[in-house]
Design a protein that fits this description.
Blueprint lengths: L4 E3 L3 H10 L15 E4 L4 E9 L9 E10 L17 E3 L12 H4 L1 E6 L1 E8 L2 E8 L5 E11 L11 E11 L10 E3 L7 H5 L7 H17 L1 E4 L16
Parallel strand pairs: 4-10, 5-10
Antiparallel strand pairs: 1-2, 1-7, 3-4, 3-6, 6-9, 7-8, 8-12, 9-10, 10-11
Protein name: Abasic site processing protein
Keywords: Covalent protein-DNA linkage, DNA damage, DNA-binding, Hydrolase, Lyase, Protease
InterPro entries: SRAP, SRAP-like
Length: 241
Amino acid sequence: MCGRFAMDDTVNELITEFVESTGLSPEDWRADWKPSYNIRPTDPVPILLETLTDRRDPTSETVRRAELAQWWLTPSFSKELRSRNPLFNARSETVTEKASFREPVKRQRAIIPAIGYYETHTEGSTKVPYFIHPPEGLLLFAGLYSWWADPTLAPDNPLRWHLTTTILTREAVGDVAWIHDRTPVTIPRDQLETWVDPATLGDRAFVEAMVDAATPVAESLQFHRIASPIRGDSVEMIQPV
C-alpha cells in the first residue's frame, strides 16, 4: 500500500523536462502546486500524462501534459467525487478487471513523481514508521487517471470537471518486503514514455510487462526509520532517527 508520500521541488525538474520535450514551457501547464512531505489521499498532486488529439483514434498525434489531480481516483460513472471505497491505490494484478480501473488502464495512464513514500511495520504492538526512497533521484509511480464530471453543475461550468488519479501497487520485492507486503509500481526512467503512451492498449500483458520492468527499481529501494507518528509537513519528517 501507499498511503502517504513526499514531493520536494526537484519534481519540477522532471515536469519541466517532460513538457518542454514537446515544445511547451512550464507556463503551459498548471503550476499551482507546492512541495509537500506529507501528501495524503485526496490531496492534489501533479501528474504527467499524454493524451490523444483524437481519443477515438489511437493513431492520432499525442500531447504531453502535466496537471494537478486529486489523489483518489473517481470513475466516470461515480455519483460522487470521493466514494467510500479507497481508490487511491490500485492492485496491478487486478487493475484490468476491476470496474473502477479497467477503462483508465487502457489509455489513461500517468506518472506520479515522488522523492519517497511512508510505510509502517508492526513490531510487537507498535507500528514503526519508515521512509522508503530510491538510492538517488526520484521515484516514478505508475498511475492511472480519470476525469469526473459533477452532475450538479452545468456542462459549460469550468468547475464541473475533476481530474483524479491512483497509484498502482504490486507485491513487494527486495529489502522493503520486510516492512510491508505491498509497494508502489516504480517505473524506471527509460520506461516513462512507454507507460504513458495512450497509443498502447493497457491490457493485462502490458501491465505485467511494466511491473516486471519496474522490478529492478523496487529491489533497489532503501529505507530508514523516522519519528513517530507521521505528522506535520517539513523536511524533518523524512530524517532518520
